[in-house]
Design a protein that fits this description.
The chain has 251 residues and is α+β, with helices and mostly antiparallel strands. The chain has three helices and 17 strands.
């Protein structure tokens, strides 16, 4: 098995950024992944006491599928985020209050009346604003994706599932990863301990190419598991190190 694809999502529910290599650190999420999130009017996120906050306090693809359409690139040092959407490109300096306000307004235009403002860009130093408070990357299987695509009757874009580390190769059976809880997986120079499968929602129906819902995989995921819609796993980094495309994956 090998690492076949590598993604991060610098702003929660905005588009993906494909990477070739990253350094994982023990006990931490992928660097720059969900480093920011965008609050709405009813958010309980407290900027005076910033901490991980549940996902319903932020703008989300499940409500606003068009957010997934953006293609982003993020510089960890300068905190500059490039966003390309519908042929229009903009750069936001997220180290600066004006840059954060501009990005929040852009996201608010997508939110429309679905989630009212005001909107702000939230962040917590060293914390990834994933749906789970576990500071852990996600591992996805391309074998499972191929099987799910057959069940749905459409080629599903892996970006729908917003996973970090995509694995593939000989010996990887579809859906096997859902039974790996407690196992250690070595990817490149890093070692991760699997926590649990990831429960899914209607966000997976958003096509990142169009920003529209289509080819909803939720029924197929529920049928596959016999109840709950599951896809991918979270895995805590127990030994940090560099990982890159093509690196070996082993137990």
């Amino acid at each position: 098995m090998k690492l076949a694809a590598l993604y991060r999502y610098p702003v929660k529910s905005l588009g993906s950024e494909a990477l070739e290599r990253v350094t994982l650190t023990a006990g931490q999420a992928m660097p720059g992944d969900r480093a920011y999130a965008i609050t709405h009017k009813d958010s309980a996120f407290d900027p005076a006491n910033p901490a991980w906050t549940p996902c319903n306090n932020f703008l989300r693809i499940v409500h606003i599928p068009s957010l997934s359409r953006a293609v982003v690139a993020f510089d960890l040092v300068s905190e500059r985020l490039r966003v390309s959407d519908g042929g229009v490109e903009a750069v936001y300096d997220l180290s600066d209050a004006d840059g954060r306000e501009a990005l929040a307004l852009w996201a608010g235009d997508h939110a429309g009346t679905i989630r009212s403002g005001p909107y702000t860009v939230a962040s917590v130093a060293g914390v990834s604003m994933t749906d789970s408070s576990d500071q852990a990357p996600s591992i996805m299987s391309l074998a499972s994706l191929r099987d799910l695509s057959k069940r749905v009757g459409a080629d599903l874009d892996p970006r729908r599932f917003r996973g970090n580390l995509w694995i593939d190769g000989e010996g990887l059976e579809p859906w096997a990863e859902l039974g790996w809880a407690g196992r250690e997986v070595r990817i490149g120079a890093a070692v991760l301990e699997v926590i649990a499968p990831i429960s899914r929602c209607l966000a997976t129906a958003a096509d990142p190419e169009t920003g529209l819902r289509g080819d909803n995989p939720m029924p197929a995921m529920k049928a596959q598991s016999g109840g709950e819609a599951l896809f991918g796993i979270t895995a805590r980094v127990v030994r940090g190190g560099d990982v890159g495309l093509g690196d070996a994956v082993s137990f």
